[in-house]
Amino acid sequence: MDFSRSVNEVTFTAFDFETTGLYPATDRIVEFGAVRFREGRVLDSFDALVNPGIPIPENAVLVSGITNEMVHGKPPVEQVIPQFMQFVEGTVLVAHNAQFDVGFLRAALDSTGMAGLTNVIIDTQVLAQRAFPRLKSYSLQALVGELALQRGTAHRGLDDSIMCMRLFQACVDSLSFMGEMTLQELIV
After folding, report:
1. Please, how many CA atoms are within 13 Å of residue 8, restricted to the half-sphere of its CB?
2. Which of 31, 45, 68, 158 ranks highest by number of CB atoms within 10 Å?
3. Is 155 a catalytic residue?
4. The domain 7-187: what is its CATH number?
5. With a cut of 50, which residues of the chain have pLDDT below it?
6. Which of 28, 155, 156, 166 is catalytic?
């Protein structure tokens, strides 16, 4: 990856997972959402419900709205993860609170015996703290509201990915007031 490339020349993939809980060691992904983009324009999207192989707890249903009935008959993560990895191949990954989603991605890769993650990762929560200091909250929903970005359905994979893409672009626009940014400037 050439880190001196202009951000406008790089293809990014914003992604978000909905899960059965908070812990990658014991919980599972129930929804993959991702949007591939360049210069704030959507190039393609990926959206898939998966059967986690374990019951979805009521507290997780309350967050995402994804029920056991919705994932019944859906493919397991092992069938979807290769498609997801093909979708993100060669792109810079963007996630909000990236540690959470990357933890689940690595757990899914490990459980299927697939190769480890090699993509560069940018966390929009960290980026937003640089671009918009001194805000009360840096949750995705709070930032989308604070910056008056177009909303989607909160806590659904594809919609959160699109909001993450919009937040990423707002951060880049805010930080690049002196001209074009390089990828290196974003990951420092």
Report:
1. 5
2. 31
3. yes
4. 3.30.420.10
5. none
6. 155
